[in-house]
Amino acid sequence: MFEATEKTRGRVGRSHVMSLALGLLTVLLAAPTLIVLAVLVYRGAPALSLDFLLSPPRAGMTAGGIFPAIVGTFYLVGLSLLVSVPLGVMGAVYLTEYARPGRLLDFVHLAIVNLAGVPSIVHALFGVGAFVVFMRLGTSILAASLTLAVMNLPIVIAATRESLLAVPYSFRQASWALGASRAQTVWHIVLPNALPGILTGVVFAVSRAAGETAPILFTGVAFYLPSLPNNVFDQCMALSMHLFTITTQVVGVPESYPAATALVLIALVLSANAVSVVLRSRHRKNRRW
Amino acid sequence: MLRPALLITLLLTACRGPSDRVVVQNKGSDTMVNLAQAWAETFVLTHPRMAVEVSGGGSGTGIAALIQGSVDIANSSRAIRPEEADAAFKRHGRKVVAHMVALDALAVFVNSANPTDSLSFEQLACIFGEGGTCESWSDLGVTVPGCRDNQIVRVSRQSNSGTFQYFRETVVGPKKDLRLGSLDLNGSSETIRLVETTPCAIGYVGMGYLSPRVKPVCVSSGPDQPCVPPTALTARRHEYPITRPLFMYTLENPTDAQRVFLDWVGSAEGLRVLEHTGYVAVEPVVASGEAQ
Amino acid sequence: MSARLHRSRWSRGVERLFELGIRLGGFAAVVLLSGIMLFVVGEAWPFLLGRFDAIEFFTSTEWFPDSVVKVRYGALALFVGTLSVTALAMVAAVPVGLLGAIYLAELAPPRVREPGKIIIELLAAIPSVVWGFIALTVVSPLMVSVLDLPVGLNVANGALVLALMSLPVIISLGEDALRAVPDSYREAAEALGATRWETTTRVVVPAARNGLLAAVLLGVSRVVGETMAVLMATGHSVRIPHSIFDPVRTLTATIAAELGEAPKGGEHYRALFTIGLCLFVITFVINWLADRLIRRAAHRV
């Protein structure tokens, strides 16, 4: 229809060139990630073995493995989820399905958005002030998990809220029209439809809780413990903290140990992320509206 | 928020297994936490019915806990103060007993490319102390190959570590601060790695932590004092000027468990562990003499 | 659907309980969140009323919290440390991040877009302490041997790590902002004969301006608050840097390094809470601005 003039060809050409250039730039972004992973694998692989994963550190952390740190990370993540997920989901349901729109709701929304961005070290301060000192929990698994839970609470609330809002309003109207109460509608209609989105938020909380070091540094993680913790008032070890310790403090740790510990930590975080990717793609496929 | 937390707590405490081990609680100096941990770990291998729990927090924290009665052994890199010992006696009716368990000698070291062999306290104060003017290796009369501008990169430790405080007190004096602008690292391992790879750097670290890839220098405490290299021998003879004793404090008449552990610490096995972790063994004669 | 509802028709009691639970949960969440602010302020308060000297705190570089001679709380060098590391990280991350977002959202063919996003997520999955480890053991020796620097732990090292950490934030939020621009804009531009590149630069990016700015702001907030990586990468040295290769110490790293041994309830402990309060205020302002921008963008579209 149109004659391709000299000028148009130039413009189309430029569009292609720019696309290609930005594409190259983005491919370059892959480089640091791959380099980091390659360095970790290259350095850490010699240490990785079943024995490394399943035995405690020995000889002043210069031998043995990281078993107590793995167990500790699982305790911390698990216990923090037990608090942050129910509270976060209930909070989000309250805010989206029950609370009346108005100034208070706006304020709460603002608080949640901001708290999601509060530095983790400030959460550490809060954890020390509130749980360790004020509630007299001492430095314990409980105090550290609660600190992680508070850190993750805004994230769980925001993710849940977003997926609740994504459930079309007509679903609720249909349910009410059938005589269902507000609570029944939430339980039978809204929550099941929002579940994949909520789970994505939970998975993100898992990876954050496993990876963060600052909030647990002063609230419940010990340098070394001779045995696994007995209850939530004991301290525990954690992978992230262990990596910090053997990198900066302990002399004579084999070169491969910190890298192998980092790999295990990344593997944990990545497997949580992989779950979230699967959930999201399923969610997209199953969405019927 | 309290409700679920409480519930979880109850659930988890309910699952707690019966514990028939005798536990010795050990708390205090962060300088000693490595050592205490290594001891704890090896000790339980031969004493399966006992457990030794180790935590840090600083010498003061450990002694405070001993006074309160919440730990069995306080680890301390300084001698207990008279008022602290009085407080413990008042509270428990038992005196505090000192066990000198090791010596900690701080080695001053430089990169292996650095030609410096010896440093006096005066020179160290010029480098590290507040008001010191040594910014360049030229001020000390050396040129360091591979070091840009011949600049001195001071590697220190966090101001609340015992190692930092002892270094400051000994080298620049009890009433002086170290100069700001040093790299205040988190631990011995980080310090050594940095000096290994940085030609301009100078740092200090517990003697036993030295790696063969860095170069310790000999230290003299004054103008007419001899320059002493950091070795186990010079530390044990108190010739090396940056040497301090490390203590474990208990109350008088320790329990059987505490006594078994402390005796083991002084045994050949305990000494073997000690030497592995970078500290210097106290000669038995000295130990008992100082402990009184 | 109705059959399932019918079978499980709830008694009034169960329903009351469910709603009570939700209300309590919502209430607890809100209380807990406001508690953070209260506790940080509360713990800093005695210091703010007592020893705190605003002039010293904000203009002196003498940070001697446990001096034997004279205790001084001058935090200027810490603020400058945070500022310098953040600024340098953003100089690197903002252009790269925004261009990456533009490419992934507007220009990339689907078979590049999906792997691209996976790479970005991989980058986001590397924890802070691992970045610190890389900075300390890989980047620092390289800087000394390749660039012939006196010391490898410095502003540039910290900024490099922080730039990499903030890229996923900027890219994914930037992409969201670009996607929020309705397709009708693109269709209109293409109908007028604009190329893909022209549509992107002259129509989509300007339309998504607020959202892109918000993405950048949230990247900044992430960088300001980052702790472990900067603790290990910047050299932790109290001083005003004269070049990007000088070591510095940041606000976050100071808290992380000193909180452990500052006696609870003491002056030093409260001074650290005061630094925490400053961080809280800084990130609060940034996040609030970003939130307003996002809402305004949503409103307009």
Please provide a written account of the structure.
The complex is a heterotrimer of chains A (289), B (292) and C (301). Chain A is mainly α. Chain A has one domain (50-286): MetI-like fold (Orthogonal Bundle), CATH 1.10.3720. Chain A has helices at 6-44, 50-54, 67-98, 103-115, 120-134, 141-166, 169-177, 182-211, 214-217, 239-248, 256-286; strands spanning 57-58, 63-64. In chain A, helix 5 crosses helix 6 (141-166). Chain A is globular and about 70 Å long. The model of chain A has no long low-confidence stretch (mean pLDDT 85). Chain B is an alpha/beta fold and 292 residues long. Chain B folds into 2 domains: 21-103 and 245-291, 3-Layer(aba) Sandwich (D-Maltodextrin-Binding Protein, domain 2); 105-236, Periplasmic binding protein-like II (D-Maltodextrin-Binding Protein, domain 2), CATH 3.40.190. Chain B is 37% helix and 22% strand. In chain B, the strands form 2 sheets. In chain B, strands 1, 2, 3, 4, 6, 7, 8, 9 and 11 form a 9-stranded mixed beta sheet that branches. Chain B has a two-stranded parallel sheet with strand order 5-10. Mean pLDDT of chain B is 82; it is low at 1-19 and 285-292. Chain C has 2 domains: 2-50; 72-300, MetI-like (MetI-like fold, Orthogonal Bundle), CATH 1.10.3720.10. Chain C contains 13 helices and 2 strands; from the N terminus they run αααββαααααααααα. Chain C is globular and about 75 Å long. The two termini of chain C are 35 Å apart. With 301 residues, chain C is mostly helical. Chain C has helices at residues 2-7, 12-49, 54-59, 76-107, 110-125, 128-147, 155-179, 183-191, 196-207, 209-225, 228-233, 251-258, 267-300, and strands at residues 63-64, 72-73. Chains in contact: A-B, A-C, B-C. Chains A and C meet through helix 1, helix 3, helix 4, helix 5 and helix 6 of A and helix 1, helix 2, helix 4, helix 5 and helix 6 of C.
